[in-house]
Amino acid sequence: xxxxxGDSPGLVSIIRAGVPHxxxxxxxxxxxxxxxxxxxxxxxxxxxxxxxxxxALHRLHPQAIPFENLDSLPGRTPSLNLASVFAKLVSARxxxxxxxxxxxxxxxxxxLGFETTCLAARVLWNDPTAMxxxxxxxxxxxxxxxxxxxxxxxxxxxxxxxxxxxxGREQAMPHEPFRLDxxxxxxxxxxxxxxxxxxxxxxxxLEPQFPSDLHHREPHSLCVDxxxxxxxxxxxxxxxxxx
Length: 243
Known about the structure:
The chain has helices spanning 12-17, 28-37, 51-64, 82-91, 98-112, 211-215, 221-224, and strands at 67-68, 115-123, 134-142, 147-150, 163-164, 169-171, 178-184, 187-194, 197-204, 229-230. The chain is an alpha+beta fold. Strand 7 (178-184) and strand 8 form a beta hairpin.
C-alpha cells in the first residue's frame, strides 16, 4: 500500500546541527533520542527501516516518554515546531500529547529511511455515533514487506506495537487485542477489547495530513480537558478495565 506522504521535515535539520560521535553512523540528535527511550540500534549495515526496528521503537517510545498535557492547565499551547518538540520530549525529558509524540516519532522513522504518512482520525471513544472533527494524529508506516499503523501517543489507548494494516481480523498485541475494519467509503475504524467488549477508538481515511493541517487543528478533548500523565507500561503491569 502506498499513499502520498505529506510534508515531513524529519530530524534532518536538527540532526545535522548535532555533532556525530567519532566513527559513529548516528548523528547526535538521533543518538540522544535513542538514549532517551533506551533503544540500541543493531548492527545491520545500511538497512535500518525494517519491521523489527519499527516494532522495537514503537514498544520503547511510549514506555519512556509519557503522554501528558500539563502545558494545557495554565493555558499554554505547545509548539509543534519540531525543534521545540525535540527540546521538550528529549532534552527536557518531558512528555507530550498526540501531535507532539507522532511528530517526533515520524521524524526519527523518516531519518532511518521508513516511508511514513501522517493521518488524522475522528475519535469515537466517548461517543461512537458522533461524527467528531479529526483531532487525533497517527502514522501509516511502510516497510519492505508490510504496511503498519503506528500510534505511540494516545494515553491508555496507545498501541503497544504497530498494527498490521490488514482489515477485518483481530490482532494480538502485547497488551489487549486490537482490530482494524473497513467501514464505508474508504474509512477505517480502529477498535480494542475493553472489559471483554470490542469498543471503537477512532475512524479515519488515508488522506495525508500536512503541517498546515495540524497547526490549525485543536487536539481532542481527551488530550486537554483533564490533566494526564500516562506511560504505556510493559504487559502485565497497570490496570486493565480501569483505564
